Amino acid sequence: MADQVHDSIAAIATPPGAGALAIIRVSGPDAVAIGDRVFRGSALLGSAGGYTVHHGSIVGPGGEQFDEVLVTLFRGPKSYTGEDMIEISCHGGGFVTREVLRIVLAAGARPAQPGEYTRRAFLNGRIDLSQAEAVADVIAARSRRGHRVSLEQLAGRLGDAVRELRTEMMDLCALLELELDFSEEGLDVITAQDVDRRIAAVRVRIGALLASYTHGRIYRDGVRVVLAGEPNAGKSSVFNALLRQDRAIVTPVPGTTRDALEESIVIDGILFLLIDTAGLRETADQVERIGVQRSRSAASGADILVHVMDASVSSDVDEHLMRMSVHTDEQHFIPVLNKCDLLPSWPGVMLRASSVVTAHATSPSGVSNDSAGYKTSASDSSNDSAAHMTSASGSVNVVAVSARTGQGLDLLRSRLAEVAAGDTSLGDEEVCITSERHRDALEKAQASLARASAGSSARSSEEYLAFDIREAAAALAEITGEVTTEEVLNHIFDRFCIGK
Ligand SMILES: Nc1nc2c(ncn2[C@@H]2O[C@H](COP(=O)(O)OP(=O)(O)OP(=O)(O)O)[C@@H](O)[C@H]2O)c(=O)[nH]1
Ligand SMILES: [Mg+2]
Fold first, then answer.
1. Which ligand has an atom closest to residue 255 CA?
2. Which end of the chain has fewer CB atoms surrounding its CB within 10 Å, N or C?
3. What's the chain look like in SS3?
4. What is residue 265's predicted lDDT score, i.e. its pLDDT?
């Protein structure tokens, strides 16, 4: 595609459907000339400067007036793409918009590919690759925090942090190479301790960026919350109550929910994907059995597992957890005691569970169908599953709710937000990574730097150290796109909409 940047592209930049206005964007060396072919205003666009708005009409090939429009003119390089651009604001009907685009295409533009404007902005050096990715994220953002992390990336904060790290590495390489040149003359350019210290400092900063992925991913893509538990515990009722809508079917019949249902909500600016699942039990019903399997696999992919228990069966939380042989990572596990309206008195919000589970993250491996619990395998059948429960390390925060009356649900909401944000909530100063691509690049860099550190401790030659450090710097360059491939670019821009 790099060789195609010399033509002019056009696309509708607003969503399809009727609206007050729609915008057709044209970018490329002929953008202004194409504008003058299709637009009649009081002056020629060709003689106008950038950042000007012109009132007039779009005319068809036969000179017939088609729509009354405003044209905004941008002169490269001070435009989104870095090229000459015009944006035609026309009436927002589907027919009008398509027709204006058709007229523009007939006047010499080619239809733009998805993300092609942003791709040109990147290729023309207007933005780095991490900023280009952030454009799509800002558009796709579904929550306040998701929007914030994307916006900061768009502002170039990640790119700046990465470039700073690269500069530090390249400086270090230069010193190492100087050292190599001067070593025969017995001159010390940099001491071994200095090299160690500087590599270690960069590794710490990369480590911090990597750690921010936990938040970043969650803020961007949302937190997967699986509601699980015994049949009839009220999972679907809690699901509906959190959504404030009757989404899932609720009946007194155990085994009502078969297929996993997914809906999103925003709590405290964080996006949550709530997943209601089939109650976990052994069953002869073929459909329900598939549902139970799906519950287990959903639970294994959960960021947060909400285990719903029926207070009318027992208000003893331990008993519930033991019976279900729940193994879960304590930190991402929220036990919920539902139907508390049926108890003679409302239980305290922090029930003490004397012997519960720690540190057994649910995982897809070892999941089998022959127990009610989330995780069993051939070697740990449900009989000896109690062995997995580390006893009495402390109390567990059990949230008492009633899906029926709504009591306790606000507490459950804030508990979800609290668990999602983790114990270290994101500071204002912190740069945050949100994409797997960035994480992979940082991990690659970190691995090269680990080799450099090891080499430095072993007092290897400066040549080898510089090689590893250069490799780390090259990995970081993938984030900003200083080093990139057509394949990577296609992968990134394919998820853009047309017109952006
Ligand atoms: N009193 C009372 N009843 C509730 C409450 N929550 C749910 N129920 C009732 O419990 C029954 C089961 O509710 P569901 O939400 O279908 O339970 P479930 O866990 O989704 O059940 P399955 O999908 O069969 O696994 C229904 O009759 C609900 O009306 C509650 O807070 N209080
Ligand atoms: Mg249900």
1. 1
2. N
3. CHHHCCCCEEEECCCCCCEEEEEEEEECCCHHHHHHHHEEECCCHHHCCCCEEEEEEEECCCCCEEEEEEEEEECCCCCCCCCCEEEEEEEECHHHHHHHHHHHHHCCCEECCECHHHHHHHHCCCCCHHHHHHHHHHHHCCCHHHHHHHHHHHCCHHHHHHHHHHHHHHHHHHHHHHHHHHHCCCCCCCCHHHHHHHHHHHHHHHHHHHHCHHHHHHHHHCEEEEEEECCCCCHHHHHHHHHCCCCCCCCCCCCCCCCCEEEEEEECCEEEEEEECCCCCCCCCHHHHHHHHHHHHHHHCCCEEEEEEECCCCCCHHHHHHHCCCCCCHHHEEEEEECHHHCCCCCCCCCCCCCCCCCCCCCCCCCCCCCCCCCCECCECHHHHHHHCCCCCCCCCCEECCCCCCCCHHHHHHHHHHHHHCCCCCCCCCCCCCCHHHHHHHHHHHHHHHHHHHHHHCCCCHHHHHHHHHHHHHHHHHHHCCCCCHHHHHHHHCCCCECC
4. 94
Residue 467 confidence (pLDDT): 94
Q: Is the CB of 233 under 6 A from ligand 1?
A: yes
**pLDDT tens, 197-252?**
999 999 999 999 999 998 888 888 899 999 989 899 999 999 999 999 999 999 99
* The CATH number of domain 2-127, selected from 2.60.40.10, 3.40.630.10, 3.40.50.300, 3.30.1360.120: 3.30.1360.120
- Positions of CATH 3.30.1360.120 in the chain: 2-127
Residues with pLDDT less than 70, the chain: 1-5, 186-187, 325-331, 348-396, 423-429
- Please give the pLDDT value at position 386: 29
Q: Is domain 134-212+431-481 given the CATH code 3.60.10.10 in the classification?
A: no
Centre of ligand 1 from the C-alpha of residue 237, in Å = 5
Q: What is the CATH number of domain 220-421?
A: 3.40.50.300
Which atom of ligand 1 is found nearest the CA of 250?
16
Decide whether any atom of ligand 1 lies within 6 Å of the 247 Cβ: no
